[in-house]
């Protein structure tokens, strides 16, 4: 099969913990977190365009194409590599916007990985990560492609080996703007840091969770329901929340009990991005 004819996955990520450990002089927050991918996400398809332009065939409601991360990623790569070719991008969207699952960042990373190969550019993973960081703090982890303990603004990685588990992810019907959560005056900004070697799965919490729950009570309601099955936490800046299960059957049994006004999905944790071999 031609590379142009294949589907290109853009998996979700979850934050197993997320601490704000400081703030830089430029206002960016310093973080520590653990990223893990899920076997659930968006799908992208690409076709060549002879006019040299970037076309988004499936614009998202309320998002101008020129501000969409997929278009911005393609344009940034085109500019950085001096490419004259254009492309038509089709996005099958499954991950919620404002959900804390990294949907837009994952889409952007898949665009960079796919077009790096389809256009024959040949940039290294490190070079793609530098471009990705210009687009958003979560883009580099998808280009790194492995479960990792992340530091800085989320761009310095130490690889992790994690147990094979399943997750039940709930999707509250709200979009949580990341900027609003980070701007909250009551956000903790001095959580003590730890080293990647010290951290173990299950340790830590999400410093953004209390703010998101205060601003968006639906997040708190979904967390409260999910915690009947064990520890649960919010991913990223929200709104999605998740809990870990030892096997798929247990996770699906919990999903079957979900109230009619809540939605969610079951996914397996992945330690490698499906496109890792491309970088």
Report on the structure:
The chain has about 280 residues and is an alpha+beta fold. It has one domain: Ribosomal Protein S5, domain 2 (2-Layer Sandwich). It has helices spanning about 70-80, 105-120, 125-135, 140-145, 180-185, 210-215, 215-225, 250-255, and strands spanning about 10-25, 30-50, 55, 85-90, 150, 155-160, 165-170, 230-235, 240-245, 265-270. Strands 1, 2, 3, 4, 5, 6, 7, 8, 9 and 10 form a 10-stranded mixed beta sheet that branches. A hairpin with a 3-residue loop joins β5 and β6 (about 155-160). The two termini are about 20 Å apart.
Classified by CATH, the class is Alpha Beta
Radius of gyration: 19 Å
Portion in strands = 25-35%
Outline type: globular
What count of helical segments does DSSP give?
8
Reported CATH architecture: 2-Layer Sandwich
Poorly predicted segments: none
Distance between the termini: 20 Å
Task: Report mean pLDDT, rounded to a whole number.
Answer: 95
Helix/strand/pairing class, anyone? alpha+beta
What does the largest sheet look like? Answer: 10 strands, mixed
Please bin the fraction of helical residues: 25-40%
Our count of domains comes out at 1
Tell me which oligomeric state these chains represent.
Answer: single chain
Which helices and strands occur, and which strands form pairs?
Elements: E1 8-23, E2 29-49, E3 54-56, H1 69-81, E4 86-92, H2 103-118, H3 125-135, H4 139-144, E5 148-152, E6 156-159, E7 166-170, H5 178-183, H6 209-215, H7 217-226, E8 232-234, E9 241-245, H8 248-256, E10 264-270
Parallel strand pairs: 3-4
Antiparallel strand pairs: 1-2, 2-4, 2-5, 2-10, 5-6, 7-9, 7-10, 8-9
Helix pairs in contact: 1-2, 6-7
């Amino acid at each position: 099969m031609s590379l142009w004819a294949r589907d290109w996955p853009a998996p979700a990520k979850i934050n197993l913990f997320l601490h704000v450990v400081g703030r830089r002089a430029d206002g960016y927050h310093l973080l520590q977190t653990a990223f893990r991918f899920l076997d659930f996400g968006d799908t992208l398809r690409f076709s060549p365009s002879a006019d040299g332009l970037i076309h988004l065939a499936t614009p998202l409601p309320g998002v101008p194409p020129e501000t969409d991360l997929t278009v911005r990623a393609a344009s940034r790569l085109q500019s950085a590599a001096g490419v004259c070719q254009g492309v038509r991008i089709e996005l099958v969207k499954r991950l919620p916007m404002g959900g804390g699952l990294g949907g837009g960042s994952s889409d952007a990373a898949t665009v960079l990985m796919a077009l790096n190969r389809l256009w024959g550019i040949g940039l290294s993973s490190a070079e793609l990560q530098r471009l990705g960081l210009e687009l958003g703090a979560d883009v580099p982890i998808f280009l790194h492609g492995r479960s990792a303990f992340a530091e800085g603004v989320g761009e310095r990685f130490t690889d992790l080996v994690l147990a094979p588990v399943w997750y039940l992810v709930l999707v509250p019907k709200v979009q949580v703007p990341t900027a609003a959560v980070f701007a909250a005056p009551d956000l903790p900004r001095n959580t003590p840091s730890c080293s990647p070697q010290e951290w173990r799965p299950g340790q830590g919490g999400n410093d953004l969770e209390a703010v998101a729950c205060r601003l968006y009570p639906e997040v708190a309601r979904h967390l409260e329901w999910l915690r009947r099955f064990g520890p649960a936490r919010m991913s990223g800046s929200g709104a999605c929340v998740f809990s870990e299960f030892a096997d798929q059957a247990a996770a699906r049994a919990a999903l079957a009990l979900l109230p009619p006004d809540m939605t969610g999905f079951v996914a397996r944790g992945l330690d490698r991005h499906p496109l890792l071999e491309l970088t």
